[in-house]
Amino acid sequence: MSAALVRRGLELLEPPGQRKAAPGPQRGRDGSRAAGTARRRRRAPEPARNKATVKGRVVKSAIEEYHKKKPVNHLRENLQYMLKGRLVADQAITEQVLAQNRGRKSKDQPPEKAEKKKPEGTVFTEEDFRKFEREYFGIP
């Protein structure tokens, strides 16, 4: 069944008086695509304003432009915002969040902290060593 026959059948099923368009070739369907795009391209350009004239031009102040583009320091506002909320997160939760945000590569891992070694000292005093010598070797 062709598309034209289907269209005619649908037109017959429509109630009278609700017809949208006159029967005939639909726009854009018939003909080559190149012709349609050429028609669109040929549309007359809108008259552009002549940029060579001075009429209607507003003179911009260099000082105003400088102040517009000048960076603004938001430090004070940001500090007030940060200090406003005094809710401090639990240390375990903070560590967990930081661990989740860290990458899996070794360069993203923080350096492991080496445990401080306590200086090895003896529990025995010099007096204990002398006492041991006397008992073991019998030296007075």
Automatic annotation (TrEMBL):
Residues 106-120 have a biased composition (Basic and acidic residues). Keywords: Nucleus. It is found in: Nucleus, Nucleolus. InterPro entries: AROS. GO terms for cellular component: nucleolus. One of its GO terms (molecular function) is enzyme binding. Residues 1-56, 98-123 are annotated as: Disordered. Belongs to the AROS family. This is Active regulator of SIRT1.
